[in-house]
């Protein structure tokens, strides 16, 4: 028996050491050391042959590791000095792993063959080691979006092959280094195309020595630092420049006149500096490639030359808060691309109007804004910021079709497993960059595997994709991909087979058999407990607490705590989307790719137990397009969680207050009112038993991706059984401002209590005001101000300007009439929700609208073409699959059963 064990041991050892021979020993030792200090490494990082076993993210050549690409793998830990053992390494990409922290080791300078060092969007800190200057083969150096501090190492100037240098969005300080005798500097990087240093704490002057005619830069990004002094005139020598961002510094002095030599520049932004008062530079008109001229708060003065507007590529002229005066003349041959001229807070006193342009209505000089083509009416101060933001998006979104086409072509040409892509949610951030969501869909499989994610992440972080003109450069902020098969967190599993076998050789066969038997019995017991729990998820429900009996549910799925934890990435802050008295709300992704919102009660507290029970029971049996769907619940590990469908555009309250960035025209407000009314009518008339919501308010009306209204939050709702038809006497609950006064006085709850709350909601839609502001109640304010003998009932000062400017004021008056009927003192005088629905339908028809058309089809109040409607619709603007069609939207079949890899893209434009 003993000799047989030894023979088996010998065979296994031969196999182990035979396999190890395929991967260089030094490389294996280095990878093993990295694996031991990293969490969440791929499950197949096992065994002694990374090259032969195709470890995820590891590429080899002739038994040597040449590439590590682990973007978006949810890694955590530190990059240890052991990395220097990978002496043949050419590519290191650990991007989008926020858990990768600590300092970058000086030993990284020993990787002499490294050509790409890409650590975008991690948590690295400390100074950038000067040893990076030893990486003479380096082409891509991307350390942006970390927490690096200290100065930019002058040694980087020794990297003669460097093409891409991105140090943006860190905490770097000190001056920009230039060469001095034996000391290198960034002026030596004559082959580098990209200097991205924005959003740091760099100080001192921009060195004149930094620029020369030898430099081949195309992008110079120094925005949002603490730079002082004047713009060096030597900048004009770099005639290859296409994008120049110097905005939001403390630059002084004159604006150099020789910038007229930058004939290739298409975006120039020097806003928010303290330049000397300067006449409008004459070189404006010589920049023939210019698409965006942005010089806000720069103290330029004088009259704009008419030739500026004839530049063929010009799209945006943003010159607000200056001293521009005289007559504005955009000429008869202005650019057909021109979309925005922003001249707020200047001293222009006249506009040369052409017959073929729309009528101009002048307002005060301080509020002047002109849009083109065609010029539209000047808009009031309360709306112009939204108008500017929207026009900025229009300018950029027109290029997104090209962007999606080219992106998909790049994926295919590089063999990535991508079926289609979607670009959506474009917004302008505080840095004046265009942000949009990129969704990538897998091809021929339900989920991306690690190899696919690694390839996509590296393609993006390595700038393999080249965007269309006017869309570059860009960087990506990727979400961690949560659905790798077999993901195990914190795994440091040892693969030391020799130790295991050695422990086994000692006569432990019987012990192992007994252990296996015990494990089997334990697992069988656990399976039985799990099966029991699934069949009765409320077996542990505390019937003695103030939460009523065990919930009675129909069809809602019971999730385990572990399932919820996985789909929220362990309840990460990144997935936290809200908080309230009940607890926090998280965004989650189910294994089938469905997005959900998870409301988690405060652990260990009985607060919310009754609300939890009420929502499960009610929502599990109501199904209507205007009522939020309950996907399931979790009652496990002492947790109470509700899992809803994910509603993209948040609450109506968010849109009315401007928090969501979505503004609502009159058409959309009517459609939202109708959708909400239909949802409440369903609860009153079709649910079995009928349900009184008891907390109708704008916070509880959610807007989906097509701006359809959905009634939400049933924690206070009350079912009306047959014995309770008419009314039920109950403790008063609700929200002040929306609360039915009759219910408050009598404690008798009826369906008409919801009608009162809905009337207040209509006033919110009409005014964009909260029900109670500084002690003033909107219902009383309207009643006191209204005069039915005047147009709009004399309510112009109370109505939202978007509503007051509606082309069919009679439709506004009709909705005011309905709202007043809903808030009658006596419930008997109020209409039913069925009547409310019919009346809103009549209002819509009176306004020339079809009440049965989806909310997403209405045009925004700004009158922008539908295909560029965002942010008024939050639909995916473009989806690509095969031949591109700009009108194609993502259908349910596109995402059903497939997990989406979502990457947030910030595009420098």
From TrEMBL:
Pfam families: LRR_1, PK_Tyr_Ser-Thr. Keywords: ATP-binding, Glycoprotein, Kinase, Leucine-rich repeat, Membrane, Nucleotide-binding, Repeat, Serine/threonine-protein kinase, Signal, Transferase, Transmembrane, Transmembrane helix. It is found in: Membrane. The keyword Transmembrane applies. It comes from the Eukaryota. InterPro entries: Kinase-like_dom_sf, Leu-rich_rpt, LRR_dom_sf, Prot_kinase_dom, Protein_kinase_ATP_BS, Ser-Thr/Tyr_kinase_cat_dom, Ser/Thr_kinase_AS. Its main location: membrane. Residues 1-21 form the signal peptide. This is Protein kinase domain-containing protein. It comes from Rehmannia glutinosa (Chinese foxglove).
